[in-house]
Design brief:
Layout lengths: L1 H22 L4 H16 L10 H30 L10 H20 L2 H12 L4 H8 L3 H21 L2
Amino acid sequence: MAHALRLDSYLQTHAAALRRYFRNRVPAAEVDDLVQEVFLNLLSRKAQTPIENMGGYLFAVAARVLLRYRLQTQRAVVEKLREDNHYPSSDPSPERVLASRQELQRLAAALECMPQRTRDVFILHRFEESTYPDIARHLNISVSAVEKQMMNALRLLKGELEKGR
């Protein structure tokens, strides 16, 4: 009985802090359910050793509960998007695979047909993730010239994509 009273005291002491913790991280309607889940976890604990730092333990459990909640929420969003056909299925159709390969071949050909400097700027920026100032130093041109070359590359690639449609 003394253990139950002590546990009840811990729960009352930490409930407000747990609510604040969850309130800053989840919609208000979910706060009480998540606090209850933390307490249920504590009550169903099978370990026989006493908890040295109840506050630390409760917040470690709260962090796991929050992570589980976020993962479930993300899964639900992805599933809803799939149901609404806004998110492609994980297995593309053979037609989609073929269309993607053909599109990639057209883009590679367009990249090969670009003027050398335009191609260099595009590759350095998009594939090697160089910044415009870094590209300008590397190619010994102005940042403005890099911007113009990049716009030209994107215009050429966009034109190639539109031809395929």
